[in-house]
Every structure is written in structure tokens, then in C-alpha cells.
TrEMBL record:
<dbReference type="GO" id="GO:0003676">
    <property type="term" value="F:nucleic acid binding"/>
</dbReference>
<dbReference type="GO" id="GO:0036009">
    <property type="term" value="F:protein-glutamine N-methyltransferase activity"/>
</dbReference>
<comment type="function">
    <text>Methylates ribosomal protein uL3 on a specific glutamine residue.</text>
</comment>
<dbReference type="InterPro" id="IPR007848">
    <property type="entry name" value="Small_mtfrase_dom"/>
</dbReference>
<keyword id="KW-0489">Methyltransferase</keyword>
<dbReference type="GO" id="GO:0032259">
    <property type="term" value="P:methylation"/>
</dbReference>
<protein>
    <recommendedName>
        <fullName>Ribosomal protein uL3 glutamine methyltransferase</fullName>
        <ecNumber>2.1.1.298</ecNumber>
    </recommendedName>
</protein>
<dbReference type="InterPro" id="IPR029063">
    <property type="entry name" value="SAM-dependent_MTases_sf"/>
</dbReference>
<keyword id="KW-0949">S-adenosyl-L-methionine</keyword>
<keyword id="KW-0808">Transferase</keyword>
<dbReference type="InterPro" id="IPR002052">
    <property type="entry name" value="DNA_methylase_N6_adenine_CS"/>
</dbReference>
<feature type="domain" description="Methyltransferase small">
    <location>
        <begin position="122"/>
        <end position="208"/>
    </location>
</feature>
<dbReference type="InterPro" id="IPR004556">
    <property type="entry name" value="HemK-like"/>
</dbReference>
<dbReference type="GO" id="GO:0005829">
    <property type="term" value="C:cytosol"/>
</dbReference>
<comment type="similarity">
    <text>Belongs to the protein N5-glutamine methyltransferase family. PrmB subfamily.</text>
</comment>
<dbReference type="Pfam" id="PF05175">
    <property type="entry name" value="MTS"/>
</dbReference>
<dbReference type="InterPro" id="IPR017127">
    <property type="entry name" value="Ribosome_uL3_MTase"/>
</dbReference>
């Protein structure tokens, strides 16, 4: 028997915001404030789109919907579970992806580059694309969406993450030209070359990892931490990228706050650090020629 006085969608959004503020939650998995997070959780839980007209917020809920919403809101507060894990869904490049705690919640600023089809940097339509460290598959599957003739490989060390990526391949109906490969870095891709390699690898340094809010503890550590400077994997990727790019290929890698470590480690290299209109930082681009020219240097600093 429901004794709560909350009845409508709007009541539940207001109540969630009050609880979120009271408990000082952290917002970093798709929203950046309590109002947007509450709207996402409440509407998502009852299978309504985020952009419905506000007049629908005054619709009354069924008893079982009220029980569900109150349970989810309290789990968000008490257990600090990010909303996309509670809903089993995250949005990236306007596309819906299945997520659970086997994969990072999609949020990379690389979405903006994909939406712009990597203009003005990509010289030609890419025939083969690699999403290295794919997690849910969001980057590679969104690339497949904007480049409908491209073959796309989704690679990850984690078999569990690839199970989720495979579900997302199925969800988006791209299994004829998007497939997964398990391996450590480039190890599962001997001799394979790509016109575009995009990667959001684990790159959080030890200091940032120790300071991360509770919400991040629900994400796989393998997806976040990567040694004291966060660059254990990126150093290896740089040393091998030239062997996996076509002549005019591009390498695009997100390193977030570890940009400072990349700049300190390779002062000789002219990385192009990309700008984002919707926010985000620490994404570099190198051409295949730069990867070749600096390969010997990259190999000495692995
Ligand atoms: C930051 S998450 C990125 C996930 C996804 N690309 C996104 O943007 O949401 C990094 C991913 O790299 C994978 N990973 C970690 N170490 C790896 C390695 N040595 N080789 C390949 N993948 C690795 C993790 O399993 C995780 O799925």
C-alpha cells in the first residue's frame, strides 16, 4: 500500500531533486545537475522520452510505477549508482546503448567529432575504422552510423565488455559490418590496418583515481585506471599505431586530464589537441605520417 503523497511525474522529479541536493550527489554520467538527472531517471524509468512536453509531467502514475520510481530514486541516493546503470541505457550521438556495470557509461567528447564526421581532418570517407577500447561499443557503432559503408572493428581486453558491445551491435542492426575482437591493445589485430583509429582508453592517473566520487566505483576499474600517470596503455598504443594505420590514416585518442602527462612525456611531438563546443578536453589527433616519424621515439618511452 503506497502511503506517499507523491502522485505525478512532476512530484517525483521534485522529490528526487530534493533528495539529490540533500545527499550532495555527484553528476557526471550524462547530466551535470540534479534537475536533469531527476528528469532522466523519472522519465526513463517509465519509458517516456526525455523531451516530452512539460504538460505530461502532471499525469498521475500507477501504484506500481510510484513504487518503482521511489525505489530507483533511493538506490541512486543510497548506493550512488549512476542513473544509466539503474535504467540499463545511455545515450551517445543521439543513439541508445545498452549499459551495465561491465562497461563504462558513454560520455566521451569524441561524440562531437563523430557527429561532424571528423571534418575537417579526415581526408576521405574511411573504409575501415577501429574503435580500440570499445566498452559498450558506443564510439564504433556511432561511427558506423555516420559512415554507412565502413567496416568497423570494436576491440577490447574485457570479454565481459564485448558481450555488451555485441548486444549493441544487434540493437543497431549493424552486424554485417561491425564486429568485436578481444585482445590487449592491438594484440588481437595482427597485420590489420585502418583509415581511422579512435580510442577512449583507460587513462585516469593514480591521483585522480583516488579522488573519484563514489559514483565511479560502480564502473569497471579496468575502464578507468591505467598506472601512475594514466598512460600505461596509451604509451603502447602510440608505439604501435603506425603499424595499424593506412597511409593517410588518423589516430584520435582521448586522454582527459592526462594531457599534461602526454605533453611532458613527448615534448618533441606536435599533437593536435582538439576543441569541443559542448565541453571536454584532452583529445589528441596524430596523422599516420606523424605516427611513423615518431615511432622510434614512442618505442623508447613505452
Ligand atoms: C574508458 S573505457 C571506454 C569505453 C568506450 N570506448 C566509451 O567511450 O564509453 C576503456 C575501455 O578499455 C578497455 N581496456 C582496458 N585495458 C585495455 C587493454 N589493455 N586493451 C584493450 N582494451 C582495454 C576496458 O575494458 C574499457 O572497456
Amino acid at each position: 500500500m503506497i502511503t506517499s503523497r507523491l502522485r505525478t511525474l512532476r512530484d517525483h522529479i521534485r522529490w528526487a531533486v530534493s533528495r539529490f541536493h540533500e545527499e550532495d550527489l555527484f553528476f557526471g554520467h550524462g547530466t551535470d545537475n540534479a534537475w536533469d538527472e531527476a528528469r532522466q531517471l523519472v522519465l526513463g524509468a517509465v519509458h517516456l522520452p526525455w523531451e516530452i512536453a512539460d504538460s505530461y509531467l502532471d499525469c498521475r502514475l500507477e501504484v506500481d510505477e510510484i513504487a518503482l520510481l521511489q525505489r530507483l530514486i533511493m538506490r541512486r541516493v543510497d548506493e550512488r549508482i549512476p542513473t544509466p546503470y539503474l535504467l540499463g541505457e545511455a545515450w551517445f550521438c543521439g543513439m541508445s546503448f545498452i549499459v551495465d556495470d561491465r562497461v563504462l557509461i558513454p560520455r566521451s567528447p569524441i561524440a562531437e567529432l563523430i557527429e561532424n564526421r571528423f571534418a575537417p581532418w579526415l581526408p576521405d570517407e574511411p573504409a575501415r575504422i577501429l574503435d580500440l577500447c570499445t566498452g559498450s561499443g558506443c564510439i564504433g557503432i556511432a561511427c558506423a552510423d555516420v559512415f554507412p559503408d565502413a567496416e568497423v572493428v570494436l576491440a577490447d581486453l574485457s570479454y565481459e565488455a564485448l558481450e555488451v558491445a555485441n548486444k549493441n551491435i544487434e540493437r543497431h542492426g549493424v552486424d554485417t559490418r561491425v564486429y568485436t575482437v578481444q585482445g590487449d591493445g592491438f594484440d588481437g589485430l595482427p597485420g590489420q590496418r585502418f583509415d581511422l583509429i579512435v580510442s577512449n582508453p583507460p587513462y585516469v592517473d593514480a591521483e585522480d583515481f583516488a579522488d573519484m566520487p563514489d559514483e565511479y566505483q560502480h564502473e569497471p576499474e579496468l575502464a578507468l585506471a591505467c598506472g601512475s600517470d594514466g598512460l600505461n596503455l596509451v604509451r603502447r598504443m602510440l608505439s604501435q599505431a603506425a603499424d595499424h594505420l593506412t597511409d593517410k590514416g588518423l589516430l584520435i585518442v582521448e586522454v582527459g586530464n592526462s594531457q599534461v602527462h602526454v605533453q611532458a612525456l613527448y615534448p618533441e611531438v606536435d599533437f593536435a589537441w582538439l576543441d569541443f563546443l559542448r565541453g571536454g578536453h584532452g583529445v589528441f589527433m596524430l596523422t599516420a605520417a606523424q605516427c611513423r616519424d615518431h615511432q622510434a621515439l614512442f618505442e623508447t618511452r613505452v
